[in-house]
Design brief:
globular; Glutathione S-transferase family protein (chains A, B); 214 residues; 9 helices; Glutathione_S-Trfase_N (chains A, B); Glutathione-S-Trfase_C_sf (chains A, B); four-stranded mixed beta sheet; Glutaredoxin; Glutathione_S-Trfase (chains A, B); alpha+beta; Glutathione S-transferase Yfyf (Class Pi), Chain A, domain 2; homodimer; 2 domains
Chain lengths: 214, 214
């Protein structure tokens, strides 16, 4: 059955690869699965037709025959269970990889989202300049814990997994801020993720849509 | 094999049931699985012995023989795959229930965490009083979308699932703020969750540890 994901008609990041469809594109490339993309405008995300598929008006939504899914973690877990390559074969290793998927979303991403909210939703508020160091300190605390855990390992738990894919993409959102540079262990970890051919293909595919037109 | 979870020696909420171990206790009760609890002090959460098990010093951590897991979503998914009762039997329904687990953590919880951060970490900052309405507006927007989706259904997708369990517990965190009262559909949804005998047992078990001593 054809897999279709939704993506921004024009990503707010102008092709940096930070929009969440890239996570799913990357997973599909790792698993060697072809997919179609349906581009959606910001206006269309608010319309009932889209909300019927994705109640929160976010991208990506995923369709495969009659099945409709959303949330990148859920989509990637669904794909990783059907096709080999993103989860270990042994049950314990599989559960640990899924732990890292949830840790990326539940523990590492929230303070990173906070930074984005401060800059974009509250960028003109008088308090934002004073708040930024507090938010950055919370991010650094989590990054330090993650770096302490990772140490000199290549990936979070053995081979590259869906947990690494999610974590690398969550960390990539920090690149424009420069915060990642203070954690060389994590900067190198992100670079390892970005060096994977499947990531390169996913990045190129979104860039073909989002690159600034000359 | 014996299941052991960690919990706060003394929960910051004084027994309201909002600490994350309650999610896992609830899942274990729904599935009829016995478990042990290891109580941990705030100081112990920072120690290397605990960090070796849970790199971010959070509760709950989960052990079952040699397997160590963390993140409530991951623990509950692991349990729901081994024991019947929290995921539909059909593959598509199962993937949709997992979508709601991720939506609880990835979409609904972040603005709710923001409110907690504003009140506790930034409670004395001069800007917090002005920021609270902005944070509350972001929470209400998500709650409205969730309520629009839920409508007059009892649960998010057919029978009660691990997705509902996660979502109800995430929403419960809003109870002290009164924000949930403005969304009667969701207040009733949370009440349905709390009325489940398994929830009642989980709540009583944490209360026995955390109730204020007279």
């Amino acid at each position: 059955m054809t897999i279709t994901i939704t993506a921004f008609e024009r990503s707010p990041d102008g092709g940096m690869g930070l929009s969440r469809d890239v996570r799913v594109r990357w997973a599909l490339e790792e698993l060697g699965q072809p997919y179609d993309v349906r581009l959606v405008s910001f206006a269309a995300l608010k319309e009932p037709a889209y909300r019927a598929m994705q109640p929160f008006g976010q991208i990506p939504a995923y369709t495969e025959g009659d099945l409709v899914l959303f949330e990148t973690g859920s989509i990637i877990l669904h794909l990783a269970e059907q096709h080999e390559g993103l989860l270990p074969r042994d049950a314990d290793g599989r559960s640990r990889a899924i732990t890292w998927m949830f840790a990326a979303i539940g523990t590492i991403e929230p303070p990173i989202l906070d930074l984005a909210t401060a800059k974009f939703a509250e960028g003109r508020e008088p308090w934002t300049e004073q708040r930024l160091p507090l938010i950055e300190a919370r991010i650094h605390a989590r990054l330090q814990e993650l770096a302490d855990y990772l140490g000199d390992a290549d990936w979070l738990d053995g081979d590259f997994s869906a947990g690494d894919l999610m974590m690398v993409h969550v960390l990539q959102r920090l690149k424009p801020s420069g915060l990642l540079d203070k954690h060389p262990i994590l900067a190198a970890y992100v670079a390892r993720g970005e060096a994977r051919p499947a990531y390169q293909r996913a990045f190129a595919a979104q860039l073909a849509i989002n690159a600034p037109r000359g």
